[in-house]
# Entry
Amino acid sequence: MEWLKQADTTGEKFLLMFVAIALFVLVMGVILFVVDRISRPPKWVLVLGFMGPALVGLAFGLVYPALTTVKASFYDANGETFVGADNYVTAFTEDSFQQVLGNTLAWTLLVPILSTVIGLVYAVLVDRTRVEKFAKTLMFMPMAISMVGASIIWKFMYEYKAVIEGLAPERQPAQIGLLNQVLIWLGLEPQQFLLDGPWNNLFLMIVMIWIQSGFAMTILSAAIKAIPDDTMEAARLDGAGGLRLFTSITIPSVRPALVVVLTTIAMSTLKVFDIVRTMTGGNFGTGVIANEFYTQSFKQANYGLGSALAVILFIFVVPLIVYNVFQMRKSEEMR
# Structure
């Protein structure tokens, strides 16, 4: 039964998965059977029966790993020697990690704002038009693509072939990257979009913006449709034009939705890993916290520093979650 502790082959992994599912079904079945057999069970029995498995799962799957990670962040690379806050000092003082933190901050500021602005403007422009459904479908389609799939698509878009000096233009290597081919058609030189910093970070962000704009558009479109027609008509009768309606009626009316969209996209952006890992591997000055703690933990085997970076990321995300929950509760109270 050693494979239960360390499943190496594909068959063992599938078997382990089926065993875990069977155990879950068995445990839930026993709990529900026992609860159902008790006549007029006390309230605490019902609560324990239905919430107990979930709480146990959260404890072992979330709380315990979190506490273990926090503890590991105060130890050295091997997890043997206590080093105090040295890993955190390294993360905030060394140039390479400062660049990682700076990139993460740039992602967190630019991606949510640009995605939300694009989604809001798009939702307003296509609202109540003949092609509304089709236009919204096109905008939302990137959301159906995985981060890795989207990264591969855009990596082909950015593909670069070096120009050979002294070779006639018609004999130069064909640019399979769409953007570089467009540059050639315009008479410009092809660019190394993913290699040349700091702009390569912006080109990576475009992938996330492309995906998240559809999410922003969907939420904000629903909020726009909830604006009473009477309010819009009254504003038009007062002489408000399109821009005035947008700034004075639409934006204040959808403010709660804007806050939710901004914070939700910010949380996703803080944890961005797939795009950076797939397109650059964190090289060429494009590292972010999520990719860096993966690199330190699993590539460099520096578990202490990797854990510290994971804790820093967690600390960054928690305020956004708290603020998002607070705003949602405030919105519910207003209703």
Notes: The chain is about 70% helix and 0% strand.
